[in-house]
């Protein structure tokens, strides 16, 4: 009968030992790379129903692993939850708490740990069992050290320096290329600007756009005209308000250069249904000259017409000014947003 308590106590010890844990982060410290080493001892009361009370929690260290000799580092007791430390340096921070109705813990954190922080660490939980017997639970973990030797560190720094030099050389090449590209771009913009000013008459600004009328046109082909407008950042003029119509009309009256000035609208897809060339949206302004439009499928492009007092008419989409035709001289009108007039 005397052996029963002993057997019971032995089983009790094994059953509850798993509830005591030690958590070490990281398990491997690299000198001088690792910034923090954290060791946490913890015990959850809910996992130890056989434990009547926890009196103290102690963290110990042994610098040797083969024949461990543990010395205390820090502890916390249940009387006043006071933290006691033993010969810890200034890089150490310790917090802890004993809570017999919840979780008890003791946490030690070292900043910039050196090689002497390697070794075995043991958490010792001391209390009393439900039978009134002394009960000690332990949990042990290890920290190993990886030292970066001076030569290896020097080699890495040299390799990094060489890599930085190579990267700088590539950056310099890219910078030179970018500068050349910027110079060439500015040169192109300047040439385009000069060619535009030489080839076109320009209006003042209207609602964020300017209008450009060629000084001379040999052949009028709407797709070519659109491409020319796009070269300067715009498109064939799209008249979408009466204010815009009268602004452009006054400009054409003042120049009095051509008989027909084609804009960016057409009824090619369906006769009599006028749409803008770019977005295919219905035409908004119909300031037609008297009897216009009147040429049916022969004339599918919208224009300003001198013979109609510079009101709108339908016109051919392709016209050769240098060949005998109907006596008219054709041109086109570009609309260029102000943001593109820096060209």
Automatic annotation (TrEMBL):
It comes from the Eukaryota. It holds the Pfam family Lectin_C. Residues 206-310 form the C-type lectin domain. Residues 1-19 form the signal peptide. Keywords: Signal. PROSITE patterns: C_TYPE_LECTIN_2. This is C-type lectin domain-containing protein. It comes from Biomphalaria pfeifferi.
């Amino acid at each position: 009968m005397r052996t029963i308590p002993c057997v019971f106590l032995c089983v009790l010890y094994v059953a509850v030992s798993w509830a005591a844990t030690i958590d070490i982060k990281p398990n491997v410290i690299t000198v001088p790379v690792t910034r923090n080493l954290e060791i946490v001892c913890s015990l959850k009361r809910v996992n130890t129903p056989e434990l009547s009370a926890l009196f103290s929690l102690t963290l110990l260290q042994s610098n040797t692993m083969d024949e461990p000799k543990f010395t205390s580092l820090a502890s916390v007791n249940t009387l006043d939850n006071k933290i006691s430390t033993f010969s810890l340096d200034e890089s150490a921070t310790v917090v802890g708490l004993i809570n017999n109705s919840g979780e008890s813990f003791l946490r030690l954190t070292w900043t910039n740990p050196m090689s002497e922080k390697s070794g075995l660490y043991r958490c010792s939980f001391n209390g009393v069992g439900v039978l009134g017997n002394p009960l000690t639970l332990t949990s042990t973990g290890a920290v190993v050290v990886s030292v970066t030797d001076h030569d290896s560190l020097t080699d890495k720094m040299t390799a990094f320096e060489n890599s930085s030099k190579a990267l700088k050389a590539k950056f310099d090449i890219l910078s030179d290329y970018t500068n050349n590209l910027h110079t060439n771009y500015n040169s192109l913009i300047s040439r385009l600007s000069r060619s535009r000013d030489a080839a076109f008459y320009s209006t003042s600004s209207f609602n964020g756009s300017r209008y450009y009328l060629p000084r001379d046109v040999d052949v009028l082909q709407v797709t070519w005209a659109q491409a020319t407008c796009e070269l300067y950042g715009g498109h064939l003029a799209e008249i979408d308000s009466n204010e815009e119509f009268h602004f452009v009309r006054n400009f054409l009256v003042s120049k009095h250069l051509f008989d027909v000035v084609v804009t960016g609208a057409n009824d090619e897809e369906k006769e009599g249904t006028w749409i803008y060339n770019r977005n295919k949206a219905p035409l908004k302004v119909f300031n037609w000259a008297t009897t216009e439009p009147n040429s049916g499928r022969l004339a599918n492009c919208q224009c300003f017409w001198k013979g109609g007092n510079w009101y709108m008419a339908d016109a051919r989409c392709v016209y050769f000014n240098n060949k005998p035709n109907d006596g008219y001289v054709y041109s086109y009108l570009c609309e260029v947003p102000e943001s593109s007039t820096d060209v």
